[in-house]
């Protein structure tokens, strides 16, 4: 992995995917933003929801999508998997630990602290998966 500056965010990128034009990917850490505040995408980790929204807007810009096309599951260590499409509502992501999609301009993500995130890419079908494990 290497850390790269992508539209004002310091994102970790996997060597095996960095040159793959069909998929964008990222891993953030607490120093991804140049702000003095810790960078977080989790509404449950800070009191200021606006701070998280601003971080998500920056991430969406780095991925060249609208913030509304960022999908984060409500992770609970179960086995529910959601196939995300443009019509997927945020409510459908409740109690979900894995997301998959083959639609362009959608960004799926999982969050981790002491768990292992798994990112999957199907080169043949141009499908991606993000798993909280």
Describe this structure in words.
The chain has one helix at 49-62; strands at residues 2-6, 9-13, 70-71, 81-83, 98-101, 107-108, 117-122, 127-132. The two termini are 20 Å apart. With 133 residues, the protein is α/β, with parallel strands linked by helices. 11% of the residues lie in helices and 25% in strands. Strand 7 (117-122) and strand 8 (127-132) form a beta hairpin. Strands 4-5-8-7 form a four-stranded mixed β-sheet, with no helix packed on it. A two-stranded antiparallel ribbon has the order 1-2.
Largest sheet geometry? 4 strands, mixed
Number of helices: 1
The end-to-end distance, rounded to whole angstroms, is 20 Å
| Residues in helices, as a percent range | 10-25%
Features:
133 residues, alpha/beta, 4-stranded mixed beta sheet, two-stranded antiparallel sheet, 11% helix, 25% strand, globular
Break the fold down into its secondary structure elements and pairings.
Elements: E1 2-6, E2 9-13, H1 49-62, E3 70-71, E4 81-83, E5 98-101, E6 107-108, E7 117-122, E8 127-132
In short:
With 133 residues, the chain is an alpha/beta fold.
């Amino acid at each position: 992995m290497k850390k790269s500056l992508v539209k004002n965010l310091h994102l970790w990128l996997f060597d095996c995917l960095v040159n793959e034009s069909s998929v964008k990917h990222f891993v953030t850490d607490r120093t991804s933003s140049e702000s003095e505040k810790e960078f977080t995408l989790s509404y449950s980790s800070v009191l200021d929801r606006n701070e998280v929204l601003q971080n998500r807007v920056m991430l969406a810009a780095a991925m060249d999508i609208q913030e509304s096309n960022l999908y984060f599951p409500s992770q609970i260590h179960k086995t529910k998997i959601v196939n995300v499409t443009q019509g997927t509502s945020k409510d459908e992501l409740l109690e979900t630990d894995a997301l998959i999609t083959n639609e362009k301009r959608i960004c799926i993500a999982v969050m981790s602290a002491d768990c292992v995130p798994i990112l999957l890419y199907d080169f043949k079908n141009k499908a991606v998966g993000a798993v909280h494990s």
